[in-house]
Amino acid sequence: PYTKTGEKTTKFGVPFDEVVNVARRIAAEPRLVLRGLAMHIGSQITDVAPYHRGTVKLIELVTAIRAAGINTLEALDVGGGLGVRYHNEKAPSPKAFADAVVPAVQAAGLGLLCEPGRYLVANAGVLLTRVLYRKHAGGKEFVIVDAGMNDFVRPSHYNAHHDILPLRDGKREQETVSVVGPICESGDFLALDRKLPSVAPGEVLAVLGTGAYGFVMSSTYNQRPRPPEVVVDGDRYYVARQRETLDDLVRGETAEPTTWYRA
Protein backbone atom coordinates (compact mmCIF):
# COMPACT_ATOMS: atom_id res chain seq x y z
CA PRO A 1 0.00 0.00 0.00
CA TYR A 2 2.92 2.39 0.61
CA THR A 3 3.78 2.50 -3.09
CA LYS A 4 0.30 3.54 -4.26
CA THR A 5 0.35 7.30 -4.74
CA GLY A 6 -2.40 7.93 -7.29
CA GLU A 7 -5.51 7.03 -5.30
CA LYS A 8 -7.96 9.67 -4.12
CA THR A 9 -7.30 8.96 -0.46
CA THR A 10 -3.53 9.53 -0.61
CA LYS A 11 -1.81 12.76 0.43
CA PHE A 12 -0.28 13.45 -2.98
CA GLY A 13 -1.08 15.88 -5.73
CA VAL A 14 -3.93 18.18 -6.65
CA PRO A 15 -7.40 16.58 -6.86
CA PHE A 16 -8.46 16.08 -10.47
CA ASP A 17 -11.48 18.37 -10.20
CA GLU A 18 -9.36 21.22 -8.77
CA VAL A 19 -6.60 21.27 -11.39
CA VAL A 20 -8.20 23.81 -13.75
CA ASN A 21 -8.82 26.25 -10.90
CA VAL A 22 -5.21 25.89 -9.78
CA ALA A 23 -4.12 26.49 -13.39
CA ARG A 24 -6.15 29.71 -13.46
CA ARG A 25 -4.52 30.89 -10.24
CA ILE A 26 -1.07 30.21 -11.71
CA ALA A 27 -1.95 32.03 -14.93
CA ALA A 28 -3.04 35.05 -12.90
CA GLU A 29 0.36 35.32 -11.24
CA PRO A 30 2.76 37.43 -13.37
CA ARG A 31 5.82 35.60 -12.04
CA LEU A 32 4.49 32.09 -12.69
CA VAL A 33 4.06 30.15 -15.94
CA LEU A 34 2.32 26.76 -16.09
CA ARG A 35 4.61 24.72 -18.33
CA GLY A 36 3.53 21.17 -17.55
CA LEU A 37 1.33 18.69 -15.76
CA ALA A 38 2.62 15.68 -13.85
CA MET A 39 1.06 12.53 -12.47
CA HIS A 40 2.47 9.82 -10.23
CA ILE A 41 0.24 6.76 -10.03
CA GLY A 42 2.59 4.63 -7.95
CA SER A 43 5.86 2.75 -7.89
CA GLN A 44 7.01 -0.66 -9.13
CA ILE A 45 4.11 -0.90 -11.59
CA THR A 46 4.63 -3.78 -14.01
CA ASP A 47 1.59 -3.21 -16.24
CA VAL A 48 1.59 -0.35 -18.77
CA ALA A 49 -2.23 -0.13 -18.92
CA PRO A 50 -2.49 2.19 -15.87
CA TYR A 51 0.01 4.54 -17.51
CA HIS A 52 -2.18 4.70 -20.59
CA ARG A 53 -5.30 5.42 -18.52
CA GLY A 54 -3.46 8.06 -16.54
CA THR A 55 -2.17 9.72 -19.70
CA VAL A 56 -5.70 9.89 -21.11
CA LYS A 57 -6.80 11.65 -17.90
CA LEU A 58 -3.91 14.11 -18.22
CA ILE A 59 -4.96 14.90 -21.79
CA GLU A 60 -8.48 15.60 -20.51
CA LEU A 61 -6.96 18.18 -18.17
CA VAL A 62 -4.86 19.63 -20.97
CA THR A 63 -8.02 20.12 -23.04
CA ALA A 64 -9.82 21.79 -20.15
CA ILE A 65 -6.88 24.07 -19.34
CA ARG A 66 -6.56 25.15 -22.95
CA ALA A 67 -10.31 25.78 -23.07
CA ALA A 68 -9.80 28.13 -20.13
CA GLY A 69 -7.49 30.20 -22.31
CA ILE A 70 -4.21 28.91 -20.87
CA ASN A 71 -1.87 27.86 -23.67
CA THR A 72 1.50 27.67 -21.94
CA LEU A 73 1.71 23.90 -21.45
CA GLU A 74 4.83 22.33 -22.95
CA ALA A 75 5.12 18.81 -21.52
CA LEU A 76 3.53 16.03 -19.49
CA ASP A 77 5.34 14.03 -16.82
CA VAL A 78 3.99 10.48 -16.77
CA GLY A 79 5.09 8.82 -13.53
CA GLY A 80 6.00 6.86 -11.53
CA GLY A 81 8.72 4.73 -12.91
CA LEU A 82 8.62 1.38 -14.64
CA GLY A 83 8.63 -1.72 -12.49
CA VAL A 84 11.55 -4.15 -12.54
CA ARG A 85 12.05 -7.84 -11.87
CA TYR A 86 12.98 -8.53 -8.26
CA HIS A 87 11.64 -12.06 -8.03
CA ASN A 88 9.10 -13.39 -10.53
CA GLU A 89 7.63 -10.14 -11.84
CA LYS A 90 7.42 -9.55 -15.58
CA ALA A 91 8.93 -6.13 -16.12
CA PRO A 92 7.51 -4.05 -18.98
CA SER A 93 9.86 -2.91 -21.73
CA PRO A 94 10.51 0.78 -22.47
CA LYS A 95 8.86 0.20 -25.86
CA ALA A 96 5.67 -1.08 -24.25
CA PHE A 97 5.61 2.00 -22.02
CA ALA A 98 6.18 4.28 -25.01
CA ASP A 99 3.44 2.59 -27.01
CA ALA A 100 1.05 3.14 -24.11
CA VAL A 101 1.67 6.86 -23.58
CA VAL A 102 3.42 8.50 -26.55
CA PRO A 103 0.56 8.56 -29.10
CA ALA A 104 -1.78 10.58 -26.86
CA VAL A 105 0.95 12.97 -25.72
CA GLN A 106 2.19 13.44 -29.26
CA ALA A 107 -1.32 14.12 -30.54
CA ALA A 108 -1.62 16.89 -27.95
CA GLY A 109 1.56 18.49 -29.29
CA LEU A 110 3.38 18.15 -25.97
CA GLY A 111 6.73 16.81 -24.83
CA LEU A 112 7.00 13.75 -22.60
CA LEU A 113 8.91 13.40 -19.36
CA CYS A 114 9.27 10.02 -17.65
CA GLU A 115 10.84 8.71 -14.45
CA PRO A 116 12.93 5.59 -15.16
CA GLY A 117 15.16 5.75 -12.08
CA ARG A 118 14.37 2.33 -10.59
CA TYR A 119 14.37 0.74 -14.05
CA LEU A 120 17.92 2.00 -14.65
CA VAL A 121 19.60 1.21 -11.35
CA ALA A 122 17.64 -1.35 -9.29
CA ASN A 123 19.37 -4.43 -10.65
CA ALA A 124 22.72 -2.68 -10.99
CA GLY A 125 23.30 -2.89 -7.24
CA VAL A 126 23.87 -5.69 -4.72
CA LEU A 127 24.27 -5.66 -0.97
CA LEU A 128 27.03 -7.94 0.35
CA THR A 129 26.60 -9.21 3.88
CA ARG A 130 28.49 -11.76 5.98
CA VAL A 131 26.90 -14.56 8.00
CA LEU A 132 27.67 -14.03 11.69
CA TYR A 133 26.12 -17.20 13.10
CA ARG A 134 23.24 -19.67 12.86
CA LYS A 135 20.43 -20.07 15.36
CA HIS A 136 17.58 -22.56 15.84
CA ALA A 137 14.61 -21.24 17.82
CA GLY A 138 10.89 -21.88 17.91
CA GLY A 139 11.18 -24.57 15.26
CA LYS A 140 12.78 -22.14 12.82
CA GLU A 141 16.26 -21.75 11.38
CA PHE A 142 17.78 -18.28 11.48
CA VAL A 143 20.80 -17.00 9.57
CA ILE A 144 22.05 -13.89 11.36
CA VAL A 145 24.03 -11.56 9.10
CA ASP A 146 25.91 -8.31 9.68
CA ALA A 147 23.53 -6.22 7.51
CA GLY A 148 20.34 -5.01 9.09
CA MET A 149 17.19 -3.07 8.35
CA ASN A 150 19.12 0.16 8.74
CA ASP A 151 21.28 -0.84 5.77
CA PHE A 152 18.42 -2.05 3.57
CA VAL A 153 14.88 -1.37 4.73
CA ARG A 154 12.78 -2.52 1.74
CA PRO A 155 12.12 -6.09 3.02
CA SER A 156 11.02 -4.82 6.42
CA HIS A 157 9.20 -1.68 5.26
CA TYR A 158 7.50 -2.99 2.12
CA ASN A 159 7.68 -6.76 2.70
CA ALA A 160 9.68 -6.71 -0.53
CA HIS A 161 11.25 -9.87 -1.94
CA HIS A 162 14.93 -9.71 -2.90
CA ASP A 163 16.76 -12.79 -4.10
CA ILE A 164 19.69 -13.82 -1.90
CA LEU A 165 22.62 -15.90 -3.13
CA PRO A 166 25.75 -17.21 -1.41
CA LEU A 167 28.95 -16.12 -3.15
CA ARG A 168 30.60 -19.51 -2.60
CA ASP A 169 29.92 -21.89 -5.45
CA GLY A 170 29.14 -25.55 -5.05
CA LYS A 171 26.08 -27.74 -4.78
CA ARG A 172 24.65 -28.13 -1.31
CA GLU A 173 21.44 -28.96 0.43
CA GLN A 174 18.74 -26.33 0.56
CA GLU A 175 16.86 -25.40 3.70
CA THR A 176 14.17 -22.97 4.75
CA VAL A 177 15.66 -20.13 6.79
CA SER A 178 15.01 -16.56 7.81
CA VAL A 179 17.87 -14.20 7.06
CA VAL A 180 17.89 -11.59 9.81
CA GLY A 181 20.09 -8.75 10.99
CA PRO A 182 21.61 -7.94 14.40
CA ILE A 183 19.28 -5.05 15.28
CA CYS A 184 16.93 -5.25 18.28
CA GLU A 185 13.75 -5.23 16.17
CA SER A 186 11.60 -8.19 15.17
CA GLY A 187 11.20 -6.40 11.82
CA ASP A 188 14.94 -6.60 11.21
CA PHE A 189 15.04 -9.11 8.38
CA LEU A 190 16.15 -9.49 4.77
CA ALA A 191 14.13 -12.63 4.05
CA LEU A 192 11.61 -14.71 5.98
CA ASP A 193 11.06 -18.46 5.56
CA ARG A 194 13.13 -18.50 2.39
CA LYS A 195 14.52 -21.67 0.78
CA LEU A 196 18.27 -21.09 0.37
CA PRO A 197 21.42 -23.17 0.05
CA SER A 198 22.77 -24.13 3.46
CA VAL A 199 25.28 -21.48 4.57
CA ALA A 200 27.79 -21.32 7.40
CA PRO A 201 29.19 -18.50 9.57
CA GLY A 202 31.76 -16.45 7.68
CA GLU A 203 30.13 -16.87 4.28
CA VAL A 204 29.20 -13.82 2.23
CA LEU A 205 25.70 -13.48 0.81
CA ALA A 206 24.59 -11.21 -2.02
CA VAL A 207 21.21 -9.51 -1.68
CA LEU A 208 20.22 -8.71 -5.26
CA GLY A 209 18.36 -5.76 -6.72
CA THR A 210 19.42 -3.19 -4.14
CA GLY A 211 20.49 -0.43 -6.53
CA ALA A 212 17.26 1.53 -6.07
CA TYR A 213 15.86 2.60 -2.69
CA GLY A 214 18.84 0.95 -1.04
CA PHE A 215 21.54 3.16 0.39
CA VAL A 216 19.38 6.27 -0.02
CA MET A 217 16.89 4.82 2.48
CA SER A 218 19.55 3.61 4.91
CA SER A 219 20.05 5.10 8.36
CA THR A 220 22.33 4.97 11.38
CA TYR A 221 19.63 3.45 13.58
CA ASN A 222 21.03 1.53 16.57
CA GLN A 223 24.24 3.58 16.24
CA ARG A 224 25.27 1.52 13.22
CA PRO A 225 27.61 3.26 10.75
CA ARG A 226 26.53 2.80 7.15
CA PRO A 227 28.53 0.57 4.79
CA PRO A 228 30.70 1.79 1.92
CA GLU A 229 29.48 1.98 -1.67
CA VAL A 230 31.74 0.45 -4.32
CA VAL A 231 31.37 1.01 -8.05
CA VAL A 232 32.45 -1.96 -10.18
CA ASP A 233 33.26 -1.68 -13.89
CA GLY A 234 34.37 -5.01 -15.36
CA ASP A 235 37.57 -5.99 -13.57
CA ARG A 236 38.10 -2.64 -11.85
CA TYR A 237 36.41 -0.86 -8.98
CA TYR A 238 36.61 2.17 -6.75
CA VAL A 239 35.11 3.18 -3.42
CA ALA A 240 32.49 5.80 -4.22
CA ARG A 241 31.49 6.34 -0.58
CA GLN A 242 33.69 5.52 2.38
CA ARG A 243 32.48 3.32 5.22
CA GLU A 244 31.15 5.47 8.03
CA THR A 245 32.92 5.58 11.41
CA LEU A 246 31.95 6.39 14.98
CA ASP A 247 33.24 9.92 14.38
CA ASP A 248 30.75 10.25 11.51
CA LEU A 249 27.93 9.21 13.84
CA VAL A 250 28.65 11.85 16.47
CA ARG A 251 29.68 14.63 14.11
CA GLY A 252 27.35 17.57 14.64
CA GLU A 253 26.52 16.63 18.22
CA THR A 254 27.44 18.94 21.09
CA ALA A 255 28.38 17.06 24.25
CA GLU A 256 28.65 20.16 26.43
CA PRO A 257 26.61 23.33 25.91
CA THR A 258 28.58 26.31 24.67
CA THR A 259 25.66 28.73 24.86
CA TRP A 260 22.43 28.57 26.82
CA TYR A 261 19.37 30.32 25.37
CA ARG A 262 16.42 31.54 27.36
CA ALA A 263 13.04 30.19 26.19
Write the topology of this structure.
Layout: H1 19-27, E1 36-40, H2 49-67, E2 75-79, H3 94-107, E3 111-114, H4 117-121, E4 126-137, E5 140-145, H5 154-158, E6 164-166, E7 174-180, E8 189-197, E9 204-208, E10 229-233, E11 236-241, H6 246-250
Parallel strand pairs: 1-2, 2-3, 5-7
Antiparallel strand pairs: 4-5, 4-9, 6-9, 7-8, 10-11
Helix pairs in contact: 2-3
What features would you describe in this structure?
The structure is a single chain. This protein is of the alpha/beta class and 263 residues long. It has helices at 19-27, 49-67, 94-107, 117-121, 154-158, 246-250, and strands at 36-40, 75-79, 111-114, 126-137, 140-145, 164-166, 174-180, 189-197, 204-208, 229-233, 236-241. The chain is built from 6 helices and 11 strands. Helix 2 runs parallel beside helix 3 (94-107). The chain is globular, with a radius of gyration of 24 Å. The two termini are 42 Å apart. The mean pLDDT is 94.
Alpha-beta classification = alpha/beta
Number of helices: 6
Q: What is the gyration radius calculated from CA atoms?
A: 24 Å
Strand arrangement across the biggest beta sheet: 6-9-4-5-7-8
Number of strands: 11
Q: Which CATH class of the largest domain?
A: Mainly Beta
Q: Which percent range fits the helix content?
A: 10-25%
What order do the SSEs take from the amino end to the carboxyl end, as H and E?
A: HEHEHEHEEHEEEEEEH
Strand content: 25-35%
- In CATH terms, the superfamily of the largest domain is Lyase, Ornithine Decarboxylase, Chain A, domain 1
The backbone outline, from C-alpha atoms, is globular
